[in-house]
Structure formats: structure tokens, C-alpha cells
Design a protein that fits this description.
Blueprint (H helix, E strand, L loop, with lengths): L6 E9 L24 H10 L33 H4 L8 E12 L12 E12 L2 E3 L2 E14 L7 E13 L6 E14 L4 E17 L4 E15 L5 E13 L4 E14 L4 E17 L2 E14 L8
Antiparallel strand pairs: 1-2, 1-13, 2-3, 3-5, 4-5, 5-6, 6-7, 7-8, 8-9, 9-10, 10-11, 11-12, 12-13
């Protein structure tokens, strides 16, 4: 999970976890009589808190984040689990059901330039993904994800998200590990009472390259561009970004991931541009085919042409 500021996940136990996205809203008043402009900061926080880190894998959503990986069949070789990266030709499970629970500490819960406050929040997430083989070198992906975010001391930031997505990926022949993809994602962001904060539509195109370095480690690189449409429109943004990751399988059960993810956000209705950068390291331990645990540390910065949105 990539949250802004220096964050430590104290506990994250998930069942082939799929992480969701979130999005934005417009001026005037919502159905609950709340001034929507007051939700702008909530939207910024919710979008960043709910964006997971991409991994060295193929399936990605409109933010370049990894979708649930299709699991290869068991293997008797001595690759220490690396077959999940290197052996895409093995049979996969087309359907993946997931659920996860995480607890996160952040040192800058309000995303402020000064006077930072710390907090702890919990995330409960669930999802389902279908990845059918469409034709030679073509795969589809259809997914539904939901998540609930609850804060310890900053309950006004509590939110929920629902997302639906569909995409297609093409493995380019004679270019080992290079995949092109297109995707559409619909995301609804709700407050803790179920009131709408924002609805986002994302239309994405991208490329991802995986480079095996041996039997137990690999590099991954990706580029992605997303056209965003939002309701309300003042939160509407598009983005161009990339990511680079290194994945090392220490044993069959224990692995480590390093990630950097730069992205530029273009807020089309408010004439604002932000540069966001996240660095993270994560440990993951797989107990079985259906359960694993993760711990991670991340550091994020945001620089904007409106200095009020500058923070670490």
C-alpha cells in the first residue's frame, strides 16, 4: 500500500489481496447538505491512501497498480517461488476471490506542509477478478473491488470505495516480457454515511516490461497515461506516470519488493499540476496458496504549482 508520508504497515494479512482505487467530486452542496468544496482535502487524501504500489507483474489498473495475479499451478522445481514471475505459460486460475485487512501508521494524516499530525487507520478490502484468455497473446480482465477506510483519531477522513474495471492486455511477440494494455475503471468514493463524494472514470493506455534476472529475482518497469472524468468536475484529473520495481524471492515463502513511482497529475478543471513521487520497500510472506502477510515502509512527496498542496 502506498500512502503519502513515512508510513509503516504494522499488520497486513490478505487472501490474494486486490487493492482498490478511489477518486473525486464538484462544488456546491451534496445531498446531505455538506459544502462539497470542504471535501477537496478528503478527496486528495482518499485518492493517495487507497492507491497501492504496483509490483513486478502484468495486470494493472488505471493507476499502474497491480491487479490480483493469476496463480500458476504448483511446480516441483527449485525456483524458490520465482515461477510466479518467470513461468506465465503455466495454467492459471481465471477467477480470483480476495479479502484483506491492513493497519497503517502515517506521520502526516492531513497532508499538510507544516504542523503534521500522525494517526493510524485500518483498511478492510475485498474483491473478485476474472482474467480470461481471449486469443493468442491476448488476455482480458474484469474486476470488482470494495474497501472501507477507518481512522483512529481523524474520523472525518473515513471513507469507502467501490470500483469496477475492465481491460485487455497484449503480450508483444519477440519482445520478451513486454505487455501493452488498455483499461477502463469506474470508481465511486463515499463518506462513512454512504453519501457520494466523487465518481471517477479512468481510460488508460500503457506498457509494462518484466526482466527476469535469475531464478529468484526480476525487474519491472511501466509507463501509463490515464484520461480522467469526474463528477463533481472540480476534482477531475488526468495523469502520466511510470514505475520501476525490483522483486527478490528470498525463499519459497519470503519475498521483498522495492518500488519507485513518479506521476504527474493534471487537474483539468482547476488549472493545477502536481508531481507525486513514492518510494517503498515491502516484505511478504506466503503461508499457503490462499493466505499471505505483508509489512511495508513508504515515503512520499507531493509538489504542486499551488504550494498549499506541497507536502511530505
Amino acid at each position: 500500500m502506498a500512502s503519502p508520508g513515512r508510513n509503516i504497515i504494522f499488520l497486513s494479512a490478505c487472501l490474494l489481496g486486490i487493492a482498490p482505487l478511489t477518486r473525486a467530486q464538484d462544488a456546491s452542496i451534496n445531498p446531505n447538505g455538506v459544502l462539497l468544496a470542504q471535501n477537496e482535502n478528503v478527496i486528495e487524501q482518499a485518492r493517495l491512501r487507497s492507491e497501492p504500489s504496483p509490483s513486478v507483474s502484468v495486470g494493472v489498473d488505471s493507476n499502474g497498480n497491480a491487479l490480483a495475479e493469476a496463480e500458476p499451478s504448483s511446480s516441483s522445481d527449485d525456483s524458490m517461488g520465482a515461477q510466479r514471475i518467470m513461468k506465465a505459460q503455466e495454467p492459471v486460475r481465471n477467477f480470483t476471490f480476495s479479502g484483506g485487512l491492513s493497519f497503517v501508521y502515517t506521520d502526516n494524516v492531513a497532508l499538510t506542509r507544516s504542523g503534521e499530525r500522525s494517526d493510524v487507520f485500518g483498511v478492510a478490502a475485498a474483491g473478485i477478478s476474472w482474467t480470461p484468455h481471449l486469443a493468442k497473446n491476448f488476455e482480458g480482465n474484469f474486476s470488482f473491488n470494495t474497501a472501507i477506510f477507518r481512522y483512529d483519531r481523524t474520523s472525518e477522513l473515513d471513507f469507502e470505495s467501490l470500483s469496477l474495471g475492465a481491460g485487455i492486455s497484449y503480450t508483444i511477440p519477440n519482445a520478451k516480457g513486454l505487455v501493452a494494455f488498455a483499461r477502463y475503471d469506474l470508481t465511486e468514493l463515499l463518506d462513512r454515511d454512504g453519501g457520494q463524494i466523487v465518481t471517477d472514470h479512468g481510460f488508460s493506455l500503457g506498457l509494462q516490461k518484466t526482466i527476469p534476472l535469475g531464478r529468484s529475482h526480476a525487474l519491472g518497469f511501466g509507463l501509463i497515461g490515464t484520461l480522467g472524468l469526474s463528477d463533481p468536475s472540480f476534482a477531475q484529473r488526468s495523469q502520466i506516470g511510470g514505475y520501476a520495481g525490483y522483486q527478490l524471492q528470498l525463499t519459497r515463502s519470503l519475498g521483498v519488493d522495492f518500488l519507485t513511482r513518479p506521476v504527474v497529475y493534471f487537474y483539468t478543471k482547476s488549472d493545477r499540476t502536481d508531481f507525486n513521487q513514492i518510494f517503498s520497500i515491502a516484505l511478504r510472506y506466503r503461508f499457503s496458496d490462499w493466505a499471505d502477510a505483508n509489512a511495508s515502509f513508504s515515503y512520499g512527496i507531493n509538489r504542486s504549482d499551488r504550494t498549499v498542496f506541497d507536502y511530505d
